Write a sequence for this structure.
């Protein structure tokens, strides 16, 4: 190879890097969820064997984290959805909320369950009570479906001291991180109920977990027979301990507390059990002193994840607005995006797959002119239910902004449209209450 050819070869090899650098200068590189600068020195490469369980690149550093200021009260781990690609949440980043907590309010370690000794009992109003091992369960016909899980407290504002969800500094992870979406593999619960001969007069089931408090939840039979699953797989591998290993109940589209982890017992009954979760913890309190019990289904919701809180635009030019939408009532039918604070709206493109009761990725091309802008998204589900604004929710509950500022809000199912404000300098902040 002569000198001219060698020089040309070096140029061609270096061209992609140059192009990438130019692109970064145009569209900007937002900081990671942990706040690490793209120029920070990455950790050293792991010496782990290639034959062991894989790790992501040492240059990727996003992770779950607790909500700042609430290590004792807000005990959940939140999905860094602003860094997520597509609609499937990697299992290690799936949000975590447990009902087995220490005296300090922190979650205990998940139970260490031996799958060879664990059993699922199905009994109650049945002709043939059944005790199933994990191997027994895997002998039944299985399905794999995409579904989201979400805590009913996700997105709701609170006035607790130090909570960043109300502040301008809130990220998408802070405001909406108690939801995740996975491929779930397991057995349709109706198949198991047919096997045990469930009574036609039964109207509910009670599902119980194997953790120390034995968390249990009542689920109406109509929902059970529609789409409930007993799952043992998540995203192509066994369900992990913090997600209910070796098996859990999955109740698609309902608030996450219904999807009982470490499932050990299903009792077929003719009325709800009215345990602590149903009688005291999860009724939705209203400002007028009344409460709504058995508010199961998650309403239509969406959030723009790029650009979103904590990110930085490098300057005027082309950007792709991207986010996630979901609905407990079925498929997402439409997502609209506004770049002028809600004065005008444009239909975003819904990327495939669009599955029922699953996160759906939406995108919209946008040319930013460098002036202040407020980005919004609103979701419409297949029932034509439209995601409300904060003001519309406030009108239903007869409250004003002062209520959110002075009250430890216990309002579940808060699915208000989330605004992100972009300054002329390109910084992106939470504008829901600021």
């Amino acid at each position: 190879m002569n000198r001219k050819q060698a020089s040309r070869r070096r140029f061609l090899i270096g061209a992609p890097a140059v192009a990438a650098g130019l692109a970064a200068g145009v569209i900007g590189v937002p900081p990671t969820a942990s706040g690490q600068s793209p120029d920070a020195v990455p950790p050293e490469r792991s010496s782990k064997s290639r034959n062991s369980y894989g790790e992501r690149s040492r240059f990727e550093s996003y992770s779950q984290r607790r909500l700042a200021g609430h290590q004792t009260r807000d005990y959940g781990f939140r999905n860094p959805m602003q860094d997520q690609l597509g609609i499937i949440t990697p299992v290690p980043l799936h949000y975590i909320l447990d009902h087995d907590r220490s005296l300090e309010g922190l979650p205990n370690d998940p139970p260490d369950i031996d799958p060879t000794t664990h059993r699922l009992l199905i009994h109650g109003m049945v002709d043939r009570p059944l005790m199933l091992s994990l191997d027994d369960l895997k002998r039944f016909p299985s399905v794999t479906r995409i579904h989201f899980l979400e805590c009913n407290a996700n997105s709701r504002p609170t006035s607790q001291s130090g909570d960043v969800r109300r502040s301008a500094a809130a990220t998408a992870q802070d405001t909406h991180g108690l939801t995740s979406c996975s491929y779930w593999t397991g057995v349709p619960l109706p198949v198991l109920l047919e096997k045990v001969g469930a009574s036609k007069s039964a109207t509910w089931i009670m599902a119980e977990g194997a953790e120390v408090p034995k968390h249990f939840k009542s689920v109406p039979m109509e929902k059970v027979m529609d789409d409930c699953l007993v799952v043992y797989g998540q995203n192509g591998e066994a369900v992990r301990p913090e997600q209910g290993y070796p098996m859990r109940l999955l109740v698609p589209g309902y608030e996450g507390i219904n999807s009982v982890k470490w499932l050990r017992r299903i009792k077929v009954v003719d009325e709800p059990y009215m345990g602590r979760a149903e009688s005291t913890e999860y009724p939705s309190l209203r400002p007028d002193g009344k409460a709504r019990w058995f508010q199961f289904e998650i309403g239509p919701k969406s959030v723009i994840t790029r650009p979103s809180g904590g990110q930085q635009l490098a300057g005027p030019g082309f950007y792709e607005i991207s986010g996630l939408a979901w609905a407990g009532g079925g498929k997402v039918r439409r997502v609209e995006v506004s770049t002028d604070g809600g004065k005008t709206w444009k239909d975003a493109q819904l990327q495939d797959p669009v599955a029922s009761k699953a996160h759906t990725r939406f995108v919209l091309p946008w040319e930013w002119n460098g002036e202040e802008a407020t980005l919004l998204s609103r979701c419409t589900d297949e029932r034509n239910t439209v995601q409300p604004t904060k003001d519309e929710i406030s009108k239903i509950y007869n409250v004003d902004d002062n209520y959110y500022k002075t009250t430890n809000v216990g309002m579940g199912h808060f699915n208000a449209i989330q605004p992100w404000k972009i300054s002329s300098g390109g910084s992106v902040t939470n504008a829901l209450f600021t």
